[in-house]
Description:
single chain, 370 residues, alpha/beta, Aspartate Aminotransferase, domain 2, Aspartate Aminotransferase, domain 1, three-stranded antiparallel β-sheet, 11 helices, 15% strand
Amino acid sequence: xxxxxxxxxxxxxxxxxxxxxxxxxxxxxxxxxxxxxxxxxxxxxxxxxxxxxxxxxxxxxxxxxxxxxxxxxxxxxxxxxxxxxxxxxxxxxxxxxxxxxxxxxxxxxxxxxxxxxxxxxxxxxxxxxxxxxxxxxxxxxxxxxxxxxxxxxxxxxxxxxxxxxxxxxxxxxxxxxxxxxxxxxxxxxxxxxxxxxxxxxxxxxxxxxxxxxxxxxxxxxxxxxxxxxxxxxxxxxxxxxxxxxxxxxxxxxxxxxxxxxxxxxxxxxxxxxxxxxxxxxxxxxxxxxxxxxxxxxxxxxxxxxxxxxxxxxxxxxxxxxxxxxxxxxxxxxxxxxxxxxxxxxxxxxxxxxxxxxxxxxxxxxxxxxx
Length: 370
């Protein structure tokens, strides 16, 4: 699905040099590379502040702690998302309130958000799934109207740009009160271990990020808040500093692969190629097609028999997972999400995709649908 080794080999000289610099300094925790990378990422995102942390799930938790979400508060989330989005809500004693997916973009259906807002609603977490921004224009209008906060989950869409009706352009993760991301190795901007970050334009929020992520301390041994221990280590920051310079090129390479797939599959009636929103660029963390048939396993087995990997993100919706049954949702509550979970499949896409490899994938799939 991804080729991290080939990408490393291409960037090896710069990455090795940065890693060696950390080893020479031996400042493995909170080295200058961490601060430097955070500032560079803020500059890239054109946002005020970035605070790094240990992983994307921690970033979500710290964001909710920063905004003062309390047990019993309700947080609106898409029903079609990775488990971490909801996991943190449950861990903090909050209540997840699901909204079905848009059948085209697979992101949260903005037309259904206001239906679930109550007096207990404290926030909304739009997830920019597969590399494309959710409809932030409408989400921000709803947020302002009802006085609820926005935490953007941009773990799959870092670098994507959203264009508003007035022509203003903003990076994914910088439009809400807080944006979060993950630097898991397979992400578009991935390190060689775990890592994450929070974005904001509010200095007060940024200062709380810093405190909460370091045991709630305002200065060493002075703890003003209940916090956690969540840090991006210096070696990972050094690696990310190299890869950040390549992020736009990564998106360009992924888009080239996606366009080639699009052109190959657009006339196959049994496939829906990814929808491209007019308001958002797409950085193609995943290239996900929708099959008109529910016989996805047969198709996956066919690909596997021809040495082609594939993935399903995600086969079981969160509201039907055993761990979340106590929130009271049942099969049939979110028909679009449930249908997508049975129809979607992601094909290999990465920055080092070799033309002959992709040609083989395309021809093999075309043969299946003849």
